[in-house]
Design goal:
Blueprint (H helix, E strand, L loop, with lengths): L14 H11 L4 H8 L3 H15 L4 H10 L14 H4 L1
Helix pairs in contact: 1-3, 2-3
The protein binds zinc ion.
Zinc ion binds next to loops.
């Protein structure tokens, strides 16, 4: 369940959002994610906007910190030198 402050668990996102989240955290660039998923880069950024809103974050730095806080409960890893940290 989502808590009142908007905290979400990874499994509360849509399958497509989880795909984007996973690739972001593995360090895949926006352009590569778009290519792999057969989508436009603008669509990827649209997914990212929705992901940020659902996660309650406002920057890529906050997003990576949020993901890192879920490393145990949601079994996710974060690649800290992700190109997202400079691209977004
Ligand atoms: Zn979690």
């Amino acid at each position: 369940m989502a808590s009142p402050d908007g905290h979400r668990e990874i499994w509360e996102f849509t399958p497509r959002q989880r795909e984007v989240i996973g690739r972001m955290l593995r360090g895949t660039s926006p352009q590569q994610i778009a290519f792999r998923l057969g989508l436009g880069v603008r669509t990827i950024y649209w997914h990212v906007e929705n992901i940020y809103r659902l996660a309650g974050v406002h920057s890529v730095g906050e997003f990576f910190a949020w993901a890192h806080s879920h490393r145990d409960c949601c079994s996710i890893g974060v690649v800290w030198d992700s190109p997202w940290r400079t691209a977004v």
